[in-house]
């Protein structure tokens, strides 16, 4: 029900083919957790690409923590 991913070093602000593939893999893996209700993405470099990471979720989260994450208007619009 709860997952905490700290210190994610994948920088989705400057996607390379390898990092884009990693993001898709993470999104697919999150989508395979149907009971996931709480997600903490601390220290992630997800600016402008939050939708890519959360796009595969099967159900809405009850709690999303983004400490030390720089969000852009696109991220807020997605939320």
UniProtKB/TrEMBL annotation:
GO CC annotations on file: cytoplasm
Where is the protein situated, by its record's location annotation?
Cytoplasm
Record keywords, A-Z: Cytoplasm, Leucine-rich repeat, Repeat
UniProt superkingdom: Eukaryota
User: Does the keyword Cell inner membrane feature in the UniProt annotation?
Assistant: no
Q: Enumerate the InterPro entries for this protein.
A: LRR_dom_sf, LRRC14/PRAME
Q: Output the PANTHER family linked to this UniProt entry.
A: LEUCINE-RICH REPEAT-CONTAINING PROTEIN 14 (PTHR14224:SF9), SIMILAR TO PREFERENTIALLY EXPRESSED ANTIGEN IN MELANOMA-LIKE 3 (PTHR14224)
Protein name per the record = LRC14 protein
The record lists the organism as: Copsychus sechellarum
